[in-house]
Amino acid sequence: MSTDTSPRFLLFITGDSPIGQRATTNFRDLAETVYKEQYELEIIDILSQPARAEENNILAAPTLVRLTPSPPVKIIGDLSAEGRVRQILGLPEQPGESPSPSH
């Protein structure tokens, strides 16, 4: 469930690859901890939707794109470095803390 103010993300993957599955799992685990159910995630397979990747200037997969809050942010990889992902997204280091405002 999301609201109009919920963070919105796109996750670009290539088919059913293991790295894409890891990125999906890693992001969902983090997002459920931080946002609970108050976020929106769209998973886009660039093999079946190459135009979406081109529209978003995606050059590698997996790539996570945070659309909102602004500014947009892209993270390439399987999102396993949780501390780094939190830092890039402006999230608190400790689960349970409120997300910090965007930079």
Automatic annotation (TrEMBL):
Q: Where is the KaiB domain?
A: 10-91
Which CDD domains would you find in this protein's record?
A: KaiB_like
> Gene3D superfamilies, alphabetically?
Glutaredoxin
Membrane-spanning segments: none
**InterPro entries, alphabetically?**
KaiB-like (IPR039022), KaiB_domain (IPR011649), Thioredoxin-like_sf (IPR036249)
One protein family per Pfam: KaiB
Give the top-rank taxon of the lineage listed in the UniProt record for this protein. Bacteria
Q: Give the protein's recorded name.
A: Circadian clock protein KaiB
Specify the species: Candidatus Magnetaquiglobus chichijimensis
Q: Which gene encodes it?
A: kaiB_1
